[in-house]
Specification:
alpha+beta; about 70 residues; two-stranded antiparallel sheet
Length: about 70
């Protein structure tokens, strides 16, 4: 349907998605002297669209880095 976002909802291991996002942002974080730590316990699953969840987490981590550097 036009104008509607399709979500592929399924159970997602949250710690794995957070680790993935952190691995993408670690070089930028290290350059800014920011230490990223994943405190999400293993075994937690969420019902989500993995691609959209990764986008949200990556944006949040990027914003946190900007605030930490400022």
């Amino acid at each position: 349907e036009e104008g509607r976002l399709h979500l592929d909802l399924r159970p997602i291991a949250l710690d794995g998605v957070v680790n993935h996002c952190m691995s993408l942002l670690t070089p930028q974080a290290e350059a800014a002297h920011v230490n990223l730590v994943n405190l999400v316990p293993a075994g937690i699953t969420v019902q989500a669209d993995e691609q959209r969840l990764r986008q949200v987490l990556a944006r949040g981590q990027q914003q946190a880095q900007r605030v930490a550097v400022a």
